[in-house]
């Protein structure tokens, strides 16, 4: 299970830490309290929240007009396997990035809903790598 700080959530969602706190205070996004009182957010919960939020806001998830070599830090929202191939969906702020990679790469990277990942976009290729904290 991936646990994220409000600062990490803010960076992924493209909002301020105060916005993340408002989401949690209103009960829109669940948190867990550590022994020291700090809040953490479960990565899988964040993935579901961001997908629902983007759908509710009718966010434009296309990448038209962006130059090559863009990198999107986000959270894995879905992994679908089909034999040797897999599709990986990443929510990065309002952007939904989907990549077709090998199932072996999914295993090697430990990709699953709630895991932080980077999507590197160059021309028509989207490369996925496990994000370093």
- Percentage of residues in helical conformation: 25-40%
Question: What's the Cα radius of gyration?
Answer: 15 Å
Biggest pleated sheet: 5 strands, antiparallel
CATH superfamily descriptor of the largest domain: RNA polymerase II/Efflux pump adaptor protein, barrel-sandwich hybrid domain
Q: In DSSP terms, counting alpha (H) and pi (I) runs of 4 or more, how many helices? A: 4
Shape: globular
CATH class of the largest domain: Mainly Beta
Distance between the termini: 14 Å
Order of H and E elements: EHHEEHEEEHEE
- Low-pLDDT parts are 61-68
Per DSSP, what share of the residues sits in E-state strands of 2 or more residues? 35-45%
Widest beta sheet: strand line-up? 6-5-4-7-8
CATH architecture name of the largest domain: Beta Barrel
CATH topology of the largest domain: OB fold (Dihydrolipoamide Acetyltransferase, E2P)
User: What is the structural class?
Assistant: alpha+beta
Number of separate strands: 8
User: What is the count of structural domains?
Assistant: 2
Summed over residues and divided by their number, the pLDDT gives a mean of: 85
Q: What is the fold's blueprint, element by element?
A:
Blueprint (H helix, E strand, L loop, with lengths): L2 E2 L1 H8 L3 H9 L6 E2 L5 E4 H15 L12 E13 L2 E8 L2 E8 H7 L6 E7 L2 E6 L3
Antiparallel strand pairs: 1-3, 2-3, 4-5, 4-7, 5-6, 7-8
Helix pairs in contact: 1-2
Protein name: Helix-turn-helix transcriptional regulator
Keywords: Molybdenum
Pfam families: HTH_17, TOBE
